[in-house]
């Protein structure tokens, strides 16, 4: 645990993707292999029930929403959003020397229709994000049960996203509603090296913030590029 300013930040570096779901398979064109020969800017594909893809998404969802009945799973294939996401992933690979920490997390849109995200130019839009326990950010949860409280509901059918999120170097923090950007990474120190401590230092920030609330670990990103709406899950309770 490190203390700088008024912020307690426990560093959480993990090179692995979320254990519940493997990383997305990318083909030679730089797009997910499941997309096929897509030429449209946006394509919404209904995932075949009982397929390996369906079973994988369902398994992660059912871990914390076992009583819910999934009616449909849709794969979101937005070329513009995907390109932005992959560019950010490449930037993090360079910035963090290979550490991107890509996770599959849940997100509910509440009163906003999911189409505003998967059919938009920005995807998860920071300018429309509300103030939460960790400030103005895009919030994503490990547990589907957390995002269920924020599900979009229409004609009795609920909807939440399963999102690919680049958490990078993530700072574990207590709630802080004043946050608008991740905190700075402390300057590394070397014992007995007084000269080095006086040299100019390029400040760097964490890529995301994480914490625990309402029974789930949550991750917050403070820009639009670190998340991609991979699946939209429709279900009933």
UniProtKB/TrEMBL annotation:
Keyword NAD: yes
UniProt cross-references to InterPro entries, sorted A to Z: ARTD-AVP, Poly(ADP-ribose)pol_cat_dom
UniProtKB keywords: Glycosyltransferase, NAD, Transferase
Molecular function per GO: NAD+ poly-ADP-ribosyltransferase activity; NAD+-protein mono-ADP-ribosyltransferase activity
Superkingdom classification of source: Eukaryota
Keyword Transferase: yes
Stored Gene3D superfamilies: 3.90.228.10
Class in the EC hierarchy, top level: transferase
EC nos: 2.4.2.-
Listed GO CC annotations: nucleus
All residue ranges annotated as the PARP catalytic domain in the record: 31-237
PANTHER family per UniProt: POLY [ADP-RIBOSE] POLYMERASE (PTHR45740)
Protein name: Poly [ADP-ribose] polymerase
UniProt lineage: Eukaryota, Metazoa, Porifera, Demospongiae, Heteroscleromorpha
């Amino acid at each position: 645990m490190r203390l700088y300013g008024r912020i307690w930040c426990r560093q959480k570096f993990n090179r692995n993707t979320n254990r519940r779901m493997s990383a997305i398979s990318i083909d030679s064109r730089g797009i997910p292999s499941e997309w096929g020969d897509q030429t449209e800017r946006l394509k919404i594909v209904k995932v075949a029930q009982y397929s390996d893809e369906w079973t994988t998404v369902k398994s992660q969802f059912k871990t914390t929403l076992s009583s819910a009945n999934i009616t449909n799973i849709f794969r979101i294939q937005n070329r513009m959003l995907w390109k932005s996401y992959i560019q950010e992933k490449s930037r993090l690979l360079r910035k963090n020397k290979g550490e991107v920490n890509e996770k599959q997390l849940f997100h509910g849109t509440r009163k906003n229709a999911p189409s505003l995200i998967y059919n938009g130019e920005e995807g998860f839009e920071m300018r429309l994000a509300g103030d939460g326990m960790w400030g103005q950010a895009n919030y994503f949860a490990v547990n589907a049960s957390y995002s269920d409280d924020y599900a979009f509901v229409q004609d009795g059918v609920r909807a939440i996203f399963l999102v690919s999120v680049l958490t990078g170097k993530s700072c574990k923090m207590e709630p802080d509603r004043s946050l608008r950007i991740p905190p700075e990474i402390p300057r590394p120190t070397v014992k007995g090296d007084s000269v080095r401590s006086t040299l100019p230092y390029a400040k760097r920030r964490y890529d995301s913030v994480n914490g625990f609330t309402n029974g789930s670990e949550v991750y917050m990103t403070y820009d639009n590029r670190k998340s991609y709406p991979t699946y939209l899950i429709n279900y009933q309770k």
